[in-house]
Amino acid sequence: MGVFTLPSLGSDMEAGTLVEWLVAPGDTVHRGDIVAVIETQKGAIEIECFEEGTVHALLAEVGAELPVGTPLASIVAQGELLPEPVVASVPDFPAPTLETQARQPKPVLATTPPAAVVPASPAARVRAHEMGIDLSTLKGTFPGGGIVLADVNAAAGRVRPERAKPASPMDEMRKAIAAAMSRSKQTIPHFYLSHTLDIQPALDWLDAHNQNSAPADRILLGALFVRAAVCAAEKLTVMNGHFADGAFTPCDHVNAGVAVALRGGGLVAPALINADQMTLAQTMAGMRDLVSRARAGRLRNSEMTQGTITISGLGETGAEAMAGVIFPPQVALVCLGAPQIRPWVVDGTVVPRNVVTLTLSADHRVSDGRQAAKFIAEFETRIMDPQNL
Amino acid sequence: MTENEIRTAFIEELTKVAPDIAPEDVGDDDHIQDDLELDSMDVLNLVTALHQRLGVDIPEQDYPQIATLALATGYLVSKVAF
User: Fold this and answer.
1) In the Cβ-directed half-sphere of A124, how many Cα atoms lie within 13 Å?
2) Which of the listed CATH numbers 3.40.50.300, 2.60.120.620, 1.20.1600.10, 4.10.320.10 matches domain A95-166?
3) Of B20, B44, B52, which is closest to A295 when you measure between CB atoms?
4) Of A260, A381, A384, A335, the residue nearest B41 (C-alpha)
5) Which domain holds residue B76?
6) Of the candidates A358, A224, A216, A230, the residue with the CA atom closest to the CA atom of residue A285
7) CA distance B47 to chain A (A)
8) Contact check, Cβ <8 Å, B57/A215
9) Which CATH code for domain A1-87?
10) From 3.30.559.10, 3.40.50.2000, 3.40.47.10, 3.40.50.300, which CATH number describes the A171-388 domain?
């Protein structure tokens, strides 16, 4: 029997609150199925299962804050003998990690002897203690009569389990970004290369394409940028992969992280998985889907963790350049400024052209200026030839 | 289709594209990009949704005409009528 644990939620998040189970004991699950929803500092994330088989027991309850690595469910593989009938009493919850214990206000488990005879989960005990509720007065709703967190919350007059943290979601988002970016700047020796590119051919091609397309088939400049960056990352493999445990591992496919700014501040950079296998139209469709789900709080944990390079665009108007901070464990970030009309020399004549400044942030542990320059050259070649992207 | 129905349709599709905006927070003259902070992808998703719902295909050069609720209502009324 396998135990499915809470997978990584991204380099900047160490814990999340379970808000919803999408499976129940007895359900069949396949690799990639979405089994739970976890609320994180960056919004709700759908958790995909990495096991295959039948759910035997759910080991975590809704409302509990779970560090990455917490057992979520036990899963029986196909053909494996079911050890026992589906759990009939409160399951044996994992011991809290040191980190969780440190965050608890008081060590309550050892000081509640009367409650010890009442079947209740650790989270329920902690909450009951906090709220001054006697567990023996409650009726448990877990199979077998065990008291779970939701029962204590209900008794405390709460409709929904509330997070202990008083901070606003935006404060939480800022904390997550601060943690990841501090780590990035402390551990990654960044260097930057900038180059201004003529994007008039790309814009002209887009205008012509979009004029003859229904809204559903229109393409945005951002998709051309992502496609060009993916092509460059395929060629310059030192820009595409993860640096972990002191070594760089290039990835043989490109999962393009797409930075999405959120209303009111903050951003997420979910990855377009296997973007190297996509046409321009598929890249555009994938980006539309990612942005929609980022807004609705329905990104998947694989998208939050498997990006191999990130592309960040400053939009259609505004500042012309930004030197971005790399998302660990990635080793490169491509930032594109807003297009600007500038005097440009084309075939010996100065003409007004739309240009964009690309700034590549790269990791000196893995690459140096020569490779970064090659990456930019490949990007430029691709963006100058939009019909073949 | 009445002007009111078109107005409601626009607000509904806008708040579907940007679920963190409440319908009552969409002011008549709020610019969807400068005030409501829709990005170019959100605008395209809104245009796509309006095309599906109202059958009006808004070309890119007309995007400024749907930049606010008031502008969009007038524009869409004139297009749906045909």
Assistant:
1) 29
2) 4.10.320.10
3) B20
4) A260
5) 3-80
6) A216
7) 6
8) yes
9) 2.40.50.100
10) 3.30.559.10
Record: contact A263-B47, CB cut-off 8 A: no
- The ipTM, to two decimals, is 0.91
Residue in B with minimal Cα distance to A297: B19
Tokens 């000196």 -> residue: A364
Q: How confident is the model at residue A104 (pLDDT cuts 50, 70, 90)?
A: very low
Q: For residue A216, list chain B residues with Cβ-Cβ distance below 8 A.
A: 48, 51-52
What are the tens digits of pLDDT across the range A64-85?
998 888 999 989 887 776 655 4
For residues A280 and A219, is the Cβ–Cβ distance under 8 A? yes
Residue A22, Cβ neighbours under 10 Å: how many?
14
Q: Which residues contact A110 (CB under 8 A, 6 or more apart)?
A: none
The structural domain count of chain B equals 1
Give me the mean pLDDT over the A82-101 stretch: 49
Binary contact (A216, B51; C-beta < 8 A): yes
C-alpha separations of A255 from A13, A84, A158, B3 in Å: 20, 41, 42, 45
CA distance B26 to chain A (A): 14
Chain B residues with beta carbon closer than 8 angstroms to that of A290: none
Gap between the Cα atoms of A34 and A23, Å rounded: 9
CB A180 within 8 A of CB A330: no
The average confidence (pLDDT) of chain A is 85
Taking contacts as CB-CB distances below 8 angstroms, the residues of chain B near A214 are: 51, 57
Q: Which of A221, A291, A311, A336 to mutate to test the interface with B (most CBs of B within 10 A)?
A: A291
* Alpha-carbon gap, residue A5 to A69, rounded angstroms: 5
- Chain A residues touching residue B47 (CB < 8 angstroms): 215, 218
CATH code, B73: 1.10.1200.10
- What are the residues of chain B with a beta carbon less than 8 Å away from any beta carbon of chain A? 17-21, 36-37, 39-42, 44-45, 47-48, 50-52, 57-60
A221: which chain B residues are within 8 Å (Cβ-Cβ)? 40
How far apart (Å, rounded) are the C-alpha atoms in residues A118 and A125? 10
Question: Distance between CA atoms of A181 and A176, rounded to whole angstroms?
Answer: 9
Q: Which residue's entry shows tokens 């940007």?
A: B18
- pTM to 2 decimal places: 0.78
Tokens found for residue A103: 């965050």
Residue B44: which of A215, A296, A315 has the nearest Cβ?
A215
B17 contacts in chain A (CB < 8 Å)? 292, 295
Contact B44 A220 (CB under 8 A): yes
Helices (H), A212-324: 221-235, 280-296, 301-305
